[in-house]
Amino acid sequence: MNIGIRGSADRPSPGDRIRHSTGMDPALRRQDDGPGRPIAFGLRRAFLALGLSSSAYAFLAAWAFLLSRMGFSDAACLSVVHVASAAGLLTFWRLGRWGRARYDCFGAALLLLAVALRLQALMDTLVYGTRVDIIYLYPNVPMPADVFLLFLKAETITTIGILLAAFTWRLHIGIHVEAHSFLRNVRSVPAQTPIIVYLAALVVDVLIRVLGVSFGALTMFSTSLFMLGVASIYFIAARRPSRIGRIALAVLMGLAMALLALNKGMKSEMFFPLVPAAILFWTAYRNALLRAAFVGLAVTVLALSQLYVHHVRQVAWHSEGIERMSPIVLMVGFLAELPTFDLRDAWNSASSRLNMTVAHATTVTLADSNGFEPINVFGPIPGTFVPRFLWPGKPVLQPGAQHTARILGTHVPVSEIRSATAAGFSTELYLGGWWAGAVLGMLAYGFLLASAQRWALRTSPGFGHLAFCFLAFYWAFRFDEHHVVYSYTAIAFMVAFLWALRLAAGALGLKSIAMSRAGS
């Protein structure tokens, strides 16, 4: 279907209304909508969206500043800042002309998920306050006299950064934004392709986590395979005819990978394989009560996961490394301790973990007080691409542990630190290069990701491109927690992996691994 743009870019066509009237499953309707409409989004439209979004944020943030000068509490004023951020981000989403990719393409997902997290931060602030006492626990972190101004600056850097990343991505993606929706283009992936990739990822995961096999210099490629394996779960399960069948299959396939990650105590690795099931549930059921129950369950599981991770780190994490223990042993031990935990503390911990406001403020005050660190923030990026056999003494990349050391002011070698602390993507860019680093870094990220996705669409318009779109959606979930070095190198390694996958598929006569049915 190729429809010219007349009026709203989101106006349904007559064909769309006919399909809607048939009562066909909405998820299946999206899969058969065709290649997508060209939707213009030029410089004028882009700067208008950016200007109105920034103005909405600035207007409400100015009110927060005035309220602070009038003597209102820091928590009340910070709540207004969170509302301002949500309003600015939502404004850009409303003006972004996403078409039928309005929920799952990277730019749209980044904005919507950022709005959701700002609303969560608002609720956390209303219940628990600013949590500034956490920063005061770190004697190496200097605090200014006006704490609210620190929070305002940190959240302004974060909001502007997200707006710039979405702005650049949307502008560079151009008219074919609907082609970057994995939800509506799922049928263009050959059925056998994700099955092959999922099985390969599962085998490699067993080799690493159960048998202790090390892939050495190919570790990043094994990580890329794991991520594509999770993406494959969505494309396999989405083909099932019934909603319950799709969700059940995604849960079973995801659990196989999630259970293997239990012995490491990393929440991202435990929950990532279940993301396809969550997406399938959310798109299949539009009932408000069901979605509310789903969110409540997700929050409860997150709270319990905080307790489980704490248990694993107590039992299996030591100064010499992570002890390889059976997930069953760890889970049995956790269940035995569970009655002794206070669930209210778990909820508090989970809410604090989601709210990155303190992390933003901590990074900004370290930069302003102790100086900027461009070498530590940006220096590891080029070194990441040097193979270890060419650089035998290449240091292990640990930006999270490095930030922990920065906060604690410890001189312990980074390799001995077992706790990783998020700096906030925008605020870490600020740490690396002041406002120029934050602005240029976000512009560069949006441009690089859009360029990589356009390349994937051109060279691997089937599984390769849509799996990349799925991963970009997931990166939008964790955007603010990613360290700068991981954010940029993840794009490069995924491009390299898709290129290698395409070459290998061609050599084996399996062109459908990379191409759609139309292009194979």
Query: How would you write the strand order of the largest sheet?
Result: 1-2
* Run of helices and strands: HHHHHHHHHHHHHEEHHHHHHHHH
| Total of DSSP H or I helical runs spanning 4+ residues | 22
Shape, per Cα inertia axes? globular
Radius of gyration: 23 Å
The portion of residues forming beta strands comes to under 5%
Quote the distance from N terminus to C terminus: 21 Å
Largest sheet features: 2 strands, antiparallel
Structural class: mainly alpha
Question: Can you tell me the residue ranges where pLDDT is under 50 for at least 5 consecutive residues?
Answer: 1-34, 516-520
How many strand elements? Answer: 2
Let me know the average pLDDT.
Answer: 81
Helix content: 55-70%
Explain what you see.
Helices cover 67% and strands 1% of the residues. It has 22 helices and two strands. It has a two-stranded antiparallel sheet with strand order 1-2. The two termini are 21 Å apart. The model is unreliable at 1-34 and 516-520 (pLDDT under 50).
